[in-house]
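Structure ticket #2291
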Amino acid sequence: MKFEKLGIRSELTASLSKMGFLNPTEVQEIAIPLILDGRDVSVRSKTGSGKTGAFLIPIINNLGRSDLLEAMIIAPTRELSLQVSEVAKKIGAVYRKKVVTVYGGASMGVQINALRNGANVVVGTPGRILDLIERRELNLNNLKFVVLDEADVMLDMGFTDDVEIILSHTPRKKQVLLFSATMPKEIVELAAKFMSRDRKNVIVGEEENEIVDNVSHLYGVVPHEYKFPLLMAYYSEYEPKKSIIFTNTKSMADRIAATLKERGMRVSLLHGGKSQAERERAFNAFRNGNDVLVATNIAARGLDFSEITDIINYDAPDDPVAYIHRIGRSARMGKEGRAFTIINDSQRILIAEIKKRTKIEIKRVEIDIEHFRNLKIVARGSFRPNQRREVEGRQKGHSGNRRKGRYSTQRGYPRW
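Resolution: structure written out below.
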């Protein structure tokens, strides 16, 4: 099916085509006609299934031709707000729609000035949206659309009360659209409270607690001191094109990122200890060119990076649900992906639990670490993009860009 068959304006479908959106995904095919028809819609669909386009395309299509603020999208995190805004700006460009992003940790004055200069669509986090409402800088009187994006994450983060207060400031007559990867009882109750009785509930595919079919699952077993050699051996063996490495702590993320940067790899770092400006730079650098993102679970939900080929659990996740969320960053929009988890002997039970919980097969692989056996990560310190560090355990007489084995003689990291 083509977008024009769903009732989208011809100039918008032409713009979507130029952006590479030729055919709607399943959730878009079902949700877009309902939203165009003015219905309140509650959608449960997996991460990576095209939910963002499912609400942005019909909203942009149905916006008036005035300079009024007519759509507000509430997202749980700053990173997701920026991501949704980027897509909204691209889709709305055909009608010259102004999109303003508001979130905590950034200049309130800059965001207020942007709103005063005019906005058709506002995307933001609950706390900052509420602040702007209380300061009377966010006028919602002409609002036609309210979207609750990743509603289950907002629930987990304790934003339900803020969302209810925000919705109480919106006009009685409006469309409320709720999108979520899972649909717990509390989300159903929230939808019933603020949506019309004739709302349409859309369920596409299995719930988020199921693993997509197009991911290959692998794991390797090594003693703790050989985790980093195994990581580098994996890069040499499988040559990931674009990957996310997950750790369980901020300090370990810092150390891994610094070490990989030292070895010449193009690395971004994302965790809760970074300032908003640092997180935005990391987000943009990984989206626009860096090959590797080292992150804690802050990147495990909601973020949509295209072309992710590999998810690497340097630190095994605490439970099967965390595994599911991490792996959801790969194999987006039907593409194939690969997941690799590094464990020690005592963590074999976790692999068994993941297999039981997800009904998937996780294959143990033996990867030769001989060329990498002496590699170690930096002892401590924060990752800085332009910083160079000495790596512990280097072979005497060899610098990082002159190792033997499968290393590039110019850049000092495995060829891929």
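Closing remark: Residues 403 and 412 are 7 Å apart (CA to CA).
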